[in-house]
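Project outcomes to date are best conveyed with an example. Our students and postdoctoral researchers have been running inverse folding experiments weekly, and each run begins with a structure described purely in tokens. The record below, which covers 362 residues, was selected by the lab manager from last quarter's runs and is presented without edits.
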């Protein structure tokens, strides 16, 4: 029997929390993180997204796109407390919960713990409980694997629900742009376009050998996903080994000032992610990909966990120093924080995985 997977994703979580707590912000474009002059947007309200404001965007750019944008200082302790509420809700409906971040998680509801009769009914109940108990909205995707459940949760945002059954999966994937496949970034999508691959149907037409030639180890995943297949289970014991952020540039960076400016912005993006987790790390690794696709990494480690964005940026800059000025154009720059001091909080797990003969409906 296929699994029944729900992906729950809170709607503009940080910004929605701020709008909930401060009625004067409701209906206004809000950016959490950064300031009008510097920094990076960690989250944007839907009112801000209308103007093209997005997370990881430099604050100056965001303010230029939306002059009325209101910047709010993040309150990560508060967001973490609400996240604990969410996980308590999830635990009522599934023994198998895999948190991805403070505001999203996978649930395997093959075992109908709440006795609601279907995965769709379970998703509706979870969303209703979130609204009633937190005053926030969540979108949910229901499907038979993680790949499709995650895509489905984004289909009708905000405050939406989308169900993709095993019968619908292959046709749904056929019409899906490849850029929406998990793991397919801008550069990979461009490479696929050069090969004449734009949709799931065109990807499905490719032989595995052809995909391996062009995409290496990633080929097996692409081959299965194009057919609506993804065998990854929901893993409650999942622990993060590193947290990273990177950016591929539309035009190569060719001098030290531009590289360092980009490094500063990426450090801001990464730190917003670190602050969203009960994690700290001791090793900062910088990744540099040049215009010829040559990839180099440099790392710096410290005795105590990194505690501030400034410390993260400084360590990244020190790690990068030996590669400056760049020998050639830089097309990608990334920073990762590893040697984490604490694991991701484990999800509540009660009992054993659901039996294979369970027949919960979608």
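After processing, the design step wrote out the following sequence:
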């Amino acid at each position: 029997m296929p699994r029944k997977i729900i992906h729950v994703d809170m709607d503009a979580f940080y910004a929605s929390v701020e709008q909930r707590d401060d009625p004067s912000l409701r209906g206004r474009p809000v950016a959490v993180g950064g300031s009008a002059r510097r920094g990076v947007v960690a989250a944007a309200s839907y009112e801000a997204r209308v103007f093209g404001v997005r997370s990881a965007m430099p604050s100056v750019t965001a303010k230029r796109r939306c002059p009325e944008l209101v910047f709010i200082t993040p309150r990560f302790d508060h967001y973490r407390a609400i996240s604990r509420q969410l996980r308590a809700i999830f635990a009522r409906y599934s023994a198998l919960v895999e948190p991805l971040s403070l505001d999203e998680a996978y649930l395997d509801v093959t075992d109908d713990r709440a006795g609601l009769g279907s995965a769709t009914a379970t998703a509706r109940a979870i969303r209703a409980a979130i609204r009633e108990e937190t005053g926030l909205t969540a979108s949910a995707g229901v499907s038979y694997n993680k790949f499709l459940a995650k895509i489905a949760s984004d289909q009708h945002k905000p405050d939406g629900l989308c169900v993709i059954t095993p019968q619908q999966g292959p046709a749904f994937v056929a019409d899906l742009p490849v850029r929406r496949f998990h793991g397919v970034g801008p550069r990979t999508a461009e490479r696929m376009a050069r090969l004449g691959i734009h949709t799931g149907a065109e990807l499905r037409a490719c032989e595995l050998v052809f995909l391996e030639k062009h995409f290496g180890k990633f080929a097996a995943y692409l081959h299965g996903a194009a057919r609506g297949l993804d065998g990854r289970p929901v893993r409650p014991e999942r622990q993060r080994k590193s947290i990273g952020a990177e950016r591929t540039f539309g035009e190569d960076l060719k001098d030290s000032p531009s590289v360092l400016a980009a490094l500063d912005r990426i450090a801001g993006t990464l730190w917003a992610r670190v602050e969203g987790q009960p994690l700290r790390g001791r090793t900062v690794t910088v990744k540099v990909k040049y215009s010829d696709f040559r990839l180099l990494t440099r790392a710096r480690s410290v005795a105590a966990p990194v505690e501030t964005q400034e410390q993260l940026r400084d360590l990244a800059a020190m790690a990068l120093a030996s590669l400056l000025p760049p020998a050639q154009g830089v097309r990608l720059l990334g920073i990762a924080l590893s040697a984490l001091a604490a694991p991701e909080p484990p999800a509540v797990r009660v009992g054993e995985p659901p039996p294979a003969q369970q027949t919960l409906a979608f």
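The two ends are 12 Å apart (CA to CA). Residues 343-358 have pLDDT under 50 and may be disordered. The training component of this project remains on track.
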